[in-house]
């Protein structure tokens, strides 16, 4: 018995170490899996395609004249902020998809395969970046059809898109944490409505800060959504005045502040997300 026990082979390692190159290839494969799943969930496609278009149309043509006096001037002011707001809501699909994989056991099956441990989560986040880029350029195209014009140059526009994607990448860790700790996907969606709506609406996405009550203005100015919106307006519209009172500040300060916010969010929520995921699985 002793000899037989000693001769018994050790169990194979479930997740053998893989090279960085193999891990990247596996991550891209899982990211593609997440992207093609949109075909089976048309509601998700509507959320990051149709819903933001409705926001642009409704706020421009229903409230634009009352807020700015002109729908064209309001579109120039509001479109960059609406793109920022939509970016934040799309990040919640990272948490929703991750929660579905966890509750249905898909994540455990993926981890049992000889792939990098970080590939499933990284694949989700990369797929989110692709969806973000699609939504950003879709809203820009709709805005240009409605009369929005880039007041700077192509490089400034690409800088604004890159800044939003960096912020989306950082904020995705918030969604990952919610997706891991939530019991079901509905709880993740509930967080999106109860937490993100106040954060995005208590900002200057839809109206300039100087039109708000004095006690509210410092809160709005400190909101990272306001800071990122200011940076994107300056990069897209230019350091100029929209109409008479719609001043757009220089892009340098809000862009740097947005990057600082992104780094702080990632530094806090990325370790928390990884810790929570290890506890759950």
UniProtKB/TrEMBL annotation:
Keywords: Antibiotic resistance, Cell membrane, Membrane, Transmembrane, Transmembrane helix, Transport. GO terms for cellular component: ATP-binding cassette (ABC) transporter complex. One of its GO terms (molecular function) is ABC-type transporter activity. Residues 43-280 form the ABC transmembrane type-2 domain. It is found in: Cell membrane; Membrane. The chain crosses the membrane at residues 48-68, 74-94, 133-151, 157-181, 188-207, 259-277. This is Transport permease protein. Pfam families: ABC2_membrane. It comes from the Bacteria. GO terms for biological process: response to antibiotic. PANTHER family: NODULATION PROTEIN J. Belongs to the ABC-2 integral membrane protein family. It is a multi-pass membrane protein. Its main location: membrane.
């Amino acid at each position: 018995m002793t000899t037989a026990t000693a001769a018994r082979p050790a169990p194979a390692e479930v997740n053998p170490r893989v090279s960085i190159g193999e891990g990247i290839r596996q991550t891209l494969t899982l990211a593609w899996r997440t992207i093609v799943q949109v075909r089976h969930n048309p509601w998700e496609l509507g959320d990051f395609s149709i819903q933001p278009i409705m926001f642009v149309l409704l706020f421009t043509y229903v409230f634009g004249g009352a807020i700015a006096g002109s729908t064209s001037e309001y579109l120039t002011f509001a479109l960059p902020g609406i793109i920022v707001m939509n970016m934040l809501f799309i990040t919640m699909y990272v948490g929703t998809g991750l929660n579905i994989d966890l509750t249905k056991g898909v994540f455990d099956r993926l981890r049992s395969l000889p792939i990098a441990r970080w590939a499933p989560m990284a694949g989700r986040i990369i797929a989110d970046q692709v969806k973000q880029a699609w939504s950003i350029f879709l809203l820009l195209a709709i805005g240009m059809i409605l009369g929005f014009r880039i007041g700077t140059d192509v490089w400034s526009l690409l800088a604004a898109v890159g800044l939003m994607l960096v912020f989306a990448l950082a904020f995705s860790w918030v969604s990952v944490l919610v997706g891991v700790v939530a019991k079901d996907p509905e709880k993740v969606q509930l967080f999106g409505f109860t937490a993100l709506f106040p954060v995005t609406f208590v900002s200057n996405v839809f109206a300039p800060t100087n039109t708000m009550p004095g006690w509210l203005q410092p809160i709005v100015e400190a909101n990272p959504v306001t800071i990122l919106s200011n940076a994107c307006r300056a990069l897209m519209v230019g350091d100029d005045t929209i109409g008479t009172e719609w001043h757009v500040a220089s892009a340098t300060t809000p862009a740097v502040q947005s990057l600082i916010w992104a780094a702080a969010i990632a530094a806090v929520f990325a370790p928390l997300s990884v810790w929570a995921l290890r506890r759950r699985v």
